[in-house]
Amino acid sequence: MLDLDRLRALHAIAEYGSVSAAAEVLGITTSAVSQQIAKLERETACRLLERSGRGVRLTDAAMLLAGHAERILGLVAEAEADLEAKRGSVVGKLKVASFATASRGIMPRALRTVTEAHPELTVELHECDPKAALPQVLRGDFDLAVVHDWRGSPLSFPEGMDKLHLMDDPAEIALPSAHPLADRATLAVTDLATEDWVGAPPSDICHAWLCHTLRSHGMEPRIVHFSQEYPTQLALVAEGHCVALLPRLGRGTLPAGVVAVPVRPRLVRHLYIVWRCESRRRPAVQAMVEALREAVDTVGTTRTVHLRPGSVTA
């Protein structure tokens, strides 16, 4: 009989491309992963890994078995979810992914709510970019994720996921307080056509959105500074080096020398909770979803839409 832990190790190598990456995802050592594969090779009487340069590659037999492993592990996850739903107990461990500003602006309150209500549930939070979180939820590395996208830069939600709209988060233009336009009640993006901007690094979804937003208004982006962290962006604005377009959630208190002016017309990013379809009946997942919905009530107006099972929209 094939061992599930060994199949899980093979599946992780197939998904992440190396023994070391699989070990990191599984939370074990590279030696432990190699041992699992060696045992699986003895069980199947097949060579599963071959050297390829400084790494390894899966043999044809391994690729065949990895495909079966994905389906087997999916069925196991579904069975576990059904049993958990049958028991109706909010217990065990839940792995949650969240992008940085939601981790700062929503998750602390949500974690307190869910752990106080369900002391036998352990929630493990991982800060993760939305584009990276989606496939990891689908693979089962995370049980649930909080992700976001912007109009003009939508996420592609894969089949096999449920999605719940959590809230809309408005963006504002951050200006030096001495800027000639700092006293305006609202600003159009085109009012800042000649300004230098600070934004997220090019690999970040927020960078793509900023570029799209500026170009959609006929402006070629003049992004001269790049930072993942809002405090860094705001510090640059405070010293008069640039302006920024930042959402409110997780932004924190504005530093001295910075004002935030609403954008005209309104710009928002959309926050969602996503989980695998087979997990929708898990009491732990449901409890975390409810805690997140309560948490967003403290930061802004929410509009939740629970889509029918298996359906997602961009």
From TrEMBL:
<dbReference type="GO" id="GO:0003700">
    <property type="term" value="F:DNA-binding transcription factor activity"/>
</dbReference>
<dbReference type="InterPro" id="IPR036390">
    <property type="entry name" value="WH_DNA-bd_sf"/>
</dbReference>
<dbReference type="Pfam" id="PF00126">
    <property type="entry name" value="HTH_1"/>
</dbReference>
<dbReference type="InterPro" id="IPR036388">
    <property type="entry name" value="WH-like_DNA-bd_sf"/>
</dbReference>
<dbReference type="InterPro" id="IPR000847">
    <property type="entry name" value="LysR_HTH_N"/>
</dbReference>
<keyword id="KW-0805">Transcription regulation</keyword>
<dbReference type="GO" id="GO:0003677">
    <property type="term" value="F:DNA binding"/>
</dbReference>
<keyword id="KW-0238">DNA-binding</keyword>
<dbReference type="InterPro" id="IPR005119">
    <property type="entry name" value="LysR_subst-bd"/>
</dbReference>
<protein>
    <submittedName>
        <fullName>LysR family transcriptional regulator</fullName>
    </submittedName>
</protein>
<dbReference type="Pfam" id="PF03466">
    <property type="entry name" value="LysR_substrate"/>
</dbReference>
<feature type="domain" description="HTH lysR-type">
    <location>
        <begin position="2"/>
        <end position="59"/>
    </location>
</feature>
<keyword id="KW-0804">Transcription</keyword>
<dbReference type="GO" id="GO:0032993">
    <property type="term" value="C:protein-DNA complex"/>
</dbReference>
<comment type="similarity">
    <text>Belongs to the LysR transcriptional regulatory family.</text>
</comment>
